[in-house]
Amino acid sequence: MTTYFIDFQNGCDENDGLRPETPFRTQHPELLQPDDTVLFRRGSVFRGPLQNPSGRWEHPIRYGAYGEGEPPVFCGSQILSDPAQWENVGGSIWRFTGMLSGETANLIYGDGTCGALRWTREELCEQGDWFDSCLGYSIQHLPLAEDHTLLVYSQENPAIFYKTIECATSQYRWLAHCGHDMVISDLEFRNNGLHGIAGEEGGRNLRIENCRFTKIGGAVWDKGQKIRFGNAFECWNVAENVEVEHCVFDDIYDSAVTHQGGADCKPAYHFLIRSNTFRRCGMAAYEQRDLLPTYAEFTDNVCEDAGEGFSRLGETMPRRSEIWPQPMGHHIFLWRISHVTGNEHFALCRNTFGDAPYGAAVYSVNPSEADRLVHLEENRYPMQRYTLVGRMYGIDYPDPSAWESRSKEESERESSMKVFTVALIGAGNRGEIYTDIMKTLPEKFRVVAVADPNENHRRNIQNKHSLPDNHVFHTWQELLAQPGLADLAVIATQDSMHYEPAMKALADGYDVLLEKPLARTEDECVDLLNQARKYGRKFMVCHVLRYTPFYSRVKQLIDEGVLGDIVTIVHTEGLGNIHQSHSFVRGNWGNTAKQFHAAGQVLPRH
Description:
alpha/beta; 10-stranded parallel beta sheet; 8-stranded parallel beta sheet; 16% helix
């Protein structure tokens, strides 16, 4: 558990790097081990990517900041601010004579503006316009041509006119690697031509917090269709246990946060995007593509000015995209999802959706069965400029209240018709009883998986519900390691084994029905309650007698005042000699070494 300090401007690689007073000057990824921390001095700038190897399960590597001031910056741009490196080649056209590190994706000028990409030299006509002769080379993995040329339209030498020029190129595919078992906090990723944080490995057990992403993307994806691309944080194929919180995304060419992939793409689960600020995202603050998540949240975020920023420069709106001429520039964009299983859950809750002048707050081009699995609740729409408020179910909605109300109605209707899939953890007497009842309600429930250390119990459930062998597990850990097996988990393990599987199931997106008692201690009960609230899951305890006709009638009589004012209640449970001998003498509750006694349960039985 070593902490390393790095100061790009004032450090020295002959230092030990173990104290703020003796920082390294450069990164040393070869030194890093799981549980290590790397801190970069605030106010420092590094031109190049963060070198961030992954940690190990439950032993992440942490990347952050130390000192005071602005966050450390990882920058993908090249400085083109020397007037001597600009040559006038006729009229108001200036050519950069220096060596470029890659194909130009964006020019960021000293007055805070960006230049407009022109697809041919002949189109250069306004101050700041630019043209690169190697447009589209990077996506085709072609080397830059020997006569590679960058041209800028300017009234005078552009380095003099703008004072400073930053050229975001395609040199770095990303400024930080999207890996596994790491925490990235308090860093800024700026001016890169492709992505901010991305990678072919996908994201697992990854947390991004208090980071800034500014002017990311702009490289050419398809020169023929005039389409560009670039995302701030992209999980490719895999997004498992990923959290993005308290970050600021500003002026992103495509999407600020996205999960997408190719043939090996898996549904995201426990993908949480919370309490962030999104401004001027050209495609979307959040883009969900290819597959809906098993469980994801986009909650408590502020989204402003979708479709604005450098992505619209030089464009006739709607800007060019793969769905052109449909509108582009949304806060939430859902597309290319052709099928669903019914087990997906994507929550859009308590967000503030501001202006989207060229698009919508939520825009879906998916089939209705996918849209019904997107849950919108308590969002605000203080929109003054927008094309639509939303599009779902193939319908355009111009009015906020009308379309969110429709979405909720569709979701509720889908829920009432849905057959819920069930994973049983603990296949003893109680687990068998509950799933037997579910088998009598095939229009509501379907048992799809079981876990129990007793082979006879496992096979009994497998045979009753025709489960395939790969959905039969020896332990609850093995079952929950498989993402998205079911909508809900019935946990009927031994009394002392309730807490851990319930906590994990809730975190993995399951609604949970838990056999009594809830847990071994009051603190564990509170943990379970907070876990259910944190992940927005339904959570019930099996107090079955509450729903029996006898107790229901007693409750009704008390509520109606038939019995008068109740001052004392004496409740005695008659165990009977068979129950007493079977359970509390020779059974599972026969001694405290095996189980804590029913009298010591945290909550009453019913």
